[in-house]
Design brief:
Belongs to the ABC transporter superfamily. The protein is of the alpha/beta class. Helices cover about 35% and strands about 20% of the residues. Strands 6-7-8-3-9-10 form a 6-stranded mixed β-sheet, sandwiched between helices. The chain has a 4-stranded antiparallel β-sheet with strand order 2-1-4-5, with helices on both faces. The longest helix has 18 residues. The structure holds adenosine-5'-triphosphate. Adenosine-5'-triphosphate binds next to strand 2 and helix 3.
Length: about 400
Amino acid sequence: MPVIEAKGLTKIFGRKPQRGVRMLAEGTDREQLRREGLTAAVINATFDVQPGEIFVVMGLSGSGKSTLIRMINGLLEPTDGTLRIGGEDVTHLSAAGLREMRRTKVSMVFQHFALLPHRTVGENAAYALELRGVNRADRQRAGEEALALVGLKGWGGHLPSELSGGMRQRVGLARALAAGTDIMLMDEAFSALDPLIRKEMQDQLLELQSELGKTILFITHDLNEAMRLGERIAMMRDGRIVQVGSAEEILNEPANDYVSQFVADVDRTRVLTAGAVMERPVAVVGPKTGPKAAHRLMREHQTQALLVVSNDRRVRGVVYEEDIAEAVRAGVEALPLRTEGVAQVSPDDFLADLFQHAAATRAPLAVVNEAGALVGIIPRVTLLSALTPPSVDDPRGDGAEAALETTAGGAR
Ligand SMILES: Nc1ncnc2c1ncn2[C@@H]1O[C@H](COP(=O)(O)OP(=O)(O)OP(=O)(O)O)[C@@H](O)[C@H]1O
């Protein structure tokens, strides 16, 4: 079940906003509404956020991001559509219902930290619990735990004014964590920070999220930040969501000209990771495969290199077509395996860091997980084509090198 579910969510500012809903339904555009004194800030937003997901809403200034998040945290009542949080319809909750929702389900991290200046860092971190009436000792413990999570162990007794901007935002994050809600809304939370600190905070958020599994809705106007953080990204323009997809989908299959122009300047190789472009191996053969069978396989898949892995999916080496052809001619039984220069990369590596491997070898790159097991391969052509945006005819490049030999399973 989605944690946040929006259906046709619409917010119109101005007198008699329902009038605007009707006009939109009749096909009147946003500009005409504006001439009538109505601002359609969010129009027909439909999306869901899954448990444990980082969902990014991305758009330029004025595209409707803040209005959207303010509906989700109950500060604005939708003009139309429905909103469910944790399965509960919260579209038209009473003031008391909204307070309760904010106390128990949703916490918020703001761009300008919103810390209480005369309270200590520890008190700020535990503030949500104070509002909830939790006793001092429990508050203090929860506050300290949350500060430790964000790397501020021992800072609880200081005042916010004694902290740098990056540290203050960590307190903001700790406050949301101490609140213990499953959902965190982050509104341009890192936009006020210097680039280096900002990157550190992004890393920390990703790390915390993988540990704690929070559901995060993150708002930003920065495409690179969106692509770094978002498992899925909703692109907003003029109040409408124009595309929802992973960074890779948005880069490779932009929904319209607006999105493609938007992403045109992105350095794809610093956004796409090995994990995002890797392919599942297309060929699997048995343990005792001889050069002849391997040669056949290579021709079948039009590849000049095969990765060889063992039963536990550890990469053992590469065989090249030229070696195989030679082995077949000479009647050799064993595969002519080369073990040098076999590049193993992590799913998290950015493509930009992989080109040197592609230049050094003709073999597909082996993508191995932390345990050292093969999880996918990246054909060299994929890597090279990532340097240029895809053409319509050949969106992914030719996957022909995606052949793999493994000793797992029986011979085909
Ligand atoms: N309370 C309000 N009353 C009237 N119009 C509003 C109100 N809040 C926002 N708007 C308008 O709604 C539109 C969307 O604004 P919103 O702040 O949601 O965009 P945004 O993408 O968050 O932009 P920014 O990053 O600049 O905050 C804008 O045209 C804005 O002027």
